[in-house]
Amino acid sequence: MVKKPLLxxxxxxxxxxxxxxxxxxxxxxxxxxxxxxxxxxxxxxESFPFPDCIESIDLPPLGMNANGMLINxxxxxxxxxxxxxxxxxxxxxFQKCQxxxxxxxxxxxxxxxxxxxxxxxxxxxxxxxxxxxxxCDLRDILVNDRRDQQRHDDRARWLCxxxxxxxxVHTDPQFxxxxxxxxxxxxxxxxxxxxxxxxxxxxxxxIIDPKPGIVVSAGGGNVGQPLFIAAxxxxxxxxxxxxxxxxxxxxxxxxxxxxxFIQHKAQNVPGLTLYRSVPDLKCLLQNATVSISQCGYNTSxxxxxxxxxxxxxxxxxxxxxxxxxxxxxxxxLGVARxxxxxxxSTDRLIEEIAPLLExxxxxxxxxxxxxxxSSEILLQLLNCQQHPGLEKNNVMLA
Length: 398
Description:
There is one protein chain. By secondary structure, this protein is of the alpha/beta class. The protein is built from twelve helices and 15 strands. It has helices at 18-30, 79-97, 115-127, 149-163, 178-181, 225-242, 256-266, 282-285, 297-306, 322-333, 346-358, 370-386, and strands at 6-11, 35-40, 55-58, 62-64, 70-72, 101-105, 133-138, 166-169, 192-194, 214-217, 246-249, 272-275, 290-293, 310-312, 337-338. The protein starts with 5 loop residues before the first strand and ends in a 12-residue tail after the last helix.
């Protein structure tokens, strides 16, 4: 039996769990061709469907708060200690496994606060005798409203040129291109490959739930409370006027105090069901009348997969503009309606129900096999590296 190449995958989810879900979906196809060491840097929600057939290394978890500050979520005494232990664990694991491929999620286009552990990893990989293929792994749209955005983009371009062999962008280029949200002064020389969207597993048609009516969700839930409160306050009037039930999926990262508060608010509200979390949102959306949600990458994929009529209320606090851009692109395609977060209120939510019930998403033609294509591209890139006569830019993308 031919030994599979070893892939070292670094994933850090910080505010939500979108990066974790997308990375896990990609590993489900990678495991057919690679041995995988999955370096996880964030909290893992209880009952999260983590594949059994990969080696997972859980670092002391770090995250980000709503203000963009790095926070210690581990049992270690303080943030500095957690950072020191994480860096040691990453470098030790790299030296132990000597991978053929290093796949790093988002950095250097984001995750600047994790440079303390990623730059040492990249330096070690570059000095390694094995010379692994080093690849960056990106979602469709980047946040690009930082105060120092030009400096950020120029630094990311330089780091890509110095350390990375390729960039995978998990989108259909007809929907979004990297240069729309990344504009360094000098051209990016690192090869970019569009994989199509990473949409996750197909809908499980064997799961039959009662029709949940309106499904309200906010990804991992960390910043979902304003949407949940508006929905709870709106439901008595929605029930009175339309007799439509509502299901709210709080998400595993909604702070416990917020969960207790919305449980209290939801008491005696007619037609309302609360879920702390669900294993797969698609299982609710496939039977839903409509969806009301934020617009993270994975929620958007669930909406596209189920084709449920949707109202998107993109998270836009601070300088976060990624969800807003995605939402308006989806609206332009005719697959969803959009309500700006600044316009969210109980009354406005009630006003949106009638047009949402009449809304029919248009058919769309987007590449949705991004996990499979990611695996194929990585294999071809590795083959190019191992056979220097082949050119990376000639990797087939069809």
